[in-house]
Each structure stands twice: as C-alpha cells, then as structure tokens.
Amino acid sequence: MESVKPSSVAPSKSKLARTFAKVLHVRAMTGIAPVDGLKNVKVDADLNNEGNMGKNAINKEDEELQKRKAIDALLAKTFASISTVKSSYAQLQYAQSPYDPDGIQEADQLIVSEFKTLSELKQCYFKKQFDPSPHRAILAAESKELQSVIKTFEIMGKKLESQARLKESEIIFLREKLLEANMLNKSIEKRLTQSGSLSVLDNLHISGLSPSHFVTVLRHTVRSIRSFVKLLVNEMRSAGWDIDASVNAITEHNVVYFKEDHKCFAIESFICKEMFDSFNFPNFSLPNESLPDRNKRQLFFGRFNELKSMKAKEFLAGKPRSPFAKFCRIKYLRIVHPKMEASFFGNLSQRNMLNAGEFPDTNFFTSFAEMAKRVWLLHCLAFSFEPQASIFQVRKGCRFSDVYMESVNDEEMAVESEPQVGFTVVPGFMIGKTVIQCQVYPSKHQGILKSFTSKKQR
C-alpha cells in the first residue's frame, strides 16, 4: 500500500477554496445582501428619521416666529392705544381753559374708547387670541401711534401759542405801567425842577434872610451833588473803572465801610471837597475877579436872584464870560480828569470846548452845570448874610458830636457806642450862632481799624 504524499493534498485544498469563492461571487451577483449590506440599510433608515425630525424643528421655529410677530403686533396696538390716551388727555386739559364743553366731551369719549381697547387687548393676550396678519396690524398700530403723537404736538403748539398771547398781553400791560411810571417820574422831576429853581424863595428880601433859607438852598445843593455823583459812578462802571481803586486814590486809607455801596459816599466827599474849596473867599478866589468895596451883600444877593430862576445851560449861553461861567470851567477841569473824560466819551472834546471858552451840550456837562449852579447860589447866599455864613468840616478820627455832625449811615451809629469820624461827606455851615450840621461817614475806633488792617494783611 502506497503512502499519500503531501504534495498531492495541497492542490485539492486550493481547488476547494476557489470553488467557495466562485459560489460567493455568484450569490453576490444574484442580489443576496452580505452582512455589510444589512448595516447600510440601517443607516438609510436613520437618515430618514433625522429628516423628519428636522422638518418638525423647522415647523416649531415657524410657529415661534409667528407667535413672536403676533405678540409684537399686540404690543404695537397697546402702545398705539396708550399714545391715543395721552393725546386725548392733552386735548382734555387744553379744552378746560378756555372752557370748551364739546372738546371735553370728545376727549372723554376717546379716553373711554381707548381704555376699552386696552382691556380687549389684555383679554386677547391671556386667551392667546392673536391677530392672523401681524405685519399689517403692526403697520396700522404704528400709523395710529404717529397720528396720536402728531395730535399731541399740535395741542402743545396751541397751548404754547396761547401762553405766548398771554405773555404778549402781560408785556403790553407792563409797558403801559412803565409809561405811567415814566410820566409820574417826569412829573416828580418837574416838581423837583421847579423846587430846584428855588421858586419858594421868590419875593425874598435881603432884610428877611434867615438860616432856614440857607438850609433850603443847601438841601437842593446836596440833592444836585448826589445826582451828579450817581451819574458819575454809572459812567465809571460803564467804562470799566475800578471803583475800589478810584476810592482809594481820592480818600484816606483805613476807612472801614459798613457796606460796599457806601464807597459812593467817598466819591461824594471828593466832589464836595472840590466844589466847596475856597467857599469862604469871595468869588471862590477866582483869578482876575475883583469886587467893589461897598454893597457886597447887595451884589451877592443880586447874583443869587439873577441865577436862581434860570437853568445853568441858559445862563452860560447868555453870559459865557461871567464869574459863574469861569467857576464852572475851573471846577470841571479839576473834578473830571482827562483820562476819565477820554474813557467816558472816547475823546477830550468837552475839555477842549471849555478851554476855548465854550460849553458842551451834553447830558453829563448839563448835570455838572446844574450842580455847580446850586453851589454857586449857596455861596452867593452865604455872602448875603451879615455876618457871612462860614463853612467847616471835621477831620478823620474826631469823636462824633450830635451838635456839629449828622451821620449818613444810621446803621453804623447804632452799632458803635462811641463812633468816630471816618471822613466828612458834606461840609457844615455856621451863620452867626446857628450851626448847620455837616454830614459825616462814621468809622470804627482807631484800635479796631488797626486790628482789622493787620488781620487783612495776614
């Protein structure tokens, strides 16, 4: 018996493998799915399921979008109704003044109607009954809101026009009041001018002169001085002058003012000092002016009567070379500094006219000339007395005396137990044994002044 060789077994195994491969290939060609094919079928089913889920998600997004638009439409309707209520309420207020019953009723009906609309919108929100056409509803609501806003602005415009008409009527009323006040002021000024012409001293004879006549003229003189000081201070402020520096330049230092406005008294003191300088001398010591040895009282009283009823401007125009005209020129050039005049008026034309023997036709010089006239009249009246009236003033630091002085600041007098004189504002006069008090600005004690200065310096 022969043994089987290994080489004869190998070919038979390989042939069997090829046969199985053919069989598998034939099954594949005939459509029988392998195991991998089963897996592919399962994947396709999953894709179909995912597609259905994606469609469901898109539908939900559309629903959410529609719901959001419906809510936006509801909100738009709500704000439109609120705007309508606001405009109707504005119309209601406007119709109340002036009273308009038809307008009030119309506005009230609109308010009630819109409140009903708001209530309906509230119920729609809770019941989720939204508008099927939200886009159109939003446009309609926006249009309604714009109309309400326009209506509100129209009502506000009418209200502002009404207020403007009311203001115009108030302006007309105030203008009439101002006109009446101006007319009253002119009437008062006219009476003051009449009294300023010293008509109360008409038919006065030199033999009947008394200190009361002198006091009357002095009061008019002081009033005129203060009027010019007020004009001067206003011009200084308009020209940008430093009032404090000006006051320090014309007065002594270490004067404590009770109020800031009291510095005007220092300017008044300066004006009085310059205008009354040389008052005790005949003709104010004018150069090249001589007086007769006899009848001097009659001469001065005659000058007084000649000038008292005339305006200074008219007198200067008629007698430009009279002693009074020379007095005006000298005093103006001493009081009004060239720098001051240039800053007030931009030139030195008034000064140049005075130096040329002419007189300016300005309100400023007219006010000055009226003040100078009253000082001149007071001087003439002073030399009409026998003995003549004399002038005096007190020095700074003197103890206040009720006999010779009166204070221009009663508040300071109430504060100080022993007041002292800061400076003389208006000089005093003596006619025989009669004393006409000078007006002074009281100051604090010298010790208080020193302590105040040292604290300020620190």
TrEMBL record:
This is Protein GRAVITROPIC IN THE LIGHT 1-like. Residues 67-191 form the DUF641 domain. Residues 391-441 form the GIL1/IRKI C-terminal domain. One of its GO terms (biological process) is negative gravitropism.
